[in-house]
Amino acid sequence: VQEARKAGISVAKKGVQLWNVGAGLPLDAIKRGSITKWGCPYEISDQELVSLVDALGKNGSLERLDLSLAGFEWMQPIQREERSALSTLLEVMNGDDKVLESLDKLVINPSTNWEIPVAKLRSGPEKAIKVLSETPFLTKGGPGREEMHAMFELLCKNRNPDPGEQELELSYASVTKIFTDAQKTAENKQDKTAREAWHKAVTQLIAKGMTRRSHFKVVISAEVLRNVNFGAQELLDLSFTAEELKADFFTARELHEAAFQPFALKELGYTPKDLWEAEIPVKEMKKVGYSAKDLKGGGYTAQQMKNSQSYTLEELKEARYKPVDLGEAGYLIKDLRTAKFTALDLRKALMFSVQMIRDAGYTAHEMKSAGYDATHIRDAGYSAQEANDAGYTLTQMFTAGFAAGHLRAAGHKAGPMREAGYQLMDQ
After folding, report:
1. Which Pfam families is this protein grouped with (predicted)?
2. Which of 129, 191, 263, 412 could form a disulfide bond with 288, CB atoms 3.0-4.6 angstroms apart?
């Protein structure tokens, strides 16, 4: 149990390792150089890994080596440094051509089972370029990410922990060219030569060995691969994570096309605007917990919201959808009133007539509060009594053309009416 905790693995997994140890690793045979082919049959423990690297460092006979099940880590980010092939086996091989000098094929990934052509890679840049040009990178039957990182580490010469300006420039210049060339092709998704050009450039980069590790990661990043027309599903199949794809500018639409559902996209950190651009329906957005306000900020239109019938009109009002947009979407004025849109809100929309607003049930008092003058009130069909109760003055109602008889019926006396402009004979 203590060993499992120390190694950061489950007790059951540690038990399997201990069981497998009973079979033993052929360390003596590897050291003596008495075998030409060997494959590690299980995930070895940290202690065994150290012993195996030591034995392989003394071997000159192996022609084919399969470490795909051994539990090495072949690319950054390294989870556990003690299992890093970058700082153990590959560093030893890089530093001394005598280490595994007969090795022709190396297998490191059980998913691809691709054989790294070690002997040809070590035979100089020209042969390395030739063999690397034969099989497209990151395709079925070809090298995956782990193999590409391993080949890079095997041939990398620019490893100075304290690099000078020239070493950095040699690395930076070639990587920058690949990056910028990929950017130029990003807009033209029909460019079938983009991948070929990228493959050729990366082949040169690996074979020459003058690129630094941190720079090499850029040329096989999801961002560059996207720009040379690798799709989201292709990269996911190559063990890229969804987090990597998002960080390197894959859109929500691209991941949605790769079968990611709205909740997963939300968890990845995509915004409502991203999901709107991915054409996620309003109903789906509500299911994953977005408010009407979230959707308004993301670009969802009033028409989309109405068609979905997922949110109430009150929620749309709270989300600051404007009456003009809601009206154009087909909401009735009486519905807007029920949702507590004011007469002023409707007046600002500049699409509803005074008559329409009155017919929807708005009172003369509400209309006055919205700034409508007495003429609008009269034209809309409000009575003199309603105008009077709303607070319009006799002068305002006279100017608007309310009949004297209607004002008398509303309780106004002759004196004030004369002062407002009415004549005694007015009806």
Report:
1. Decapeptide (PF25296)
2. 263
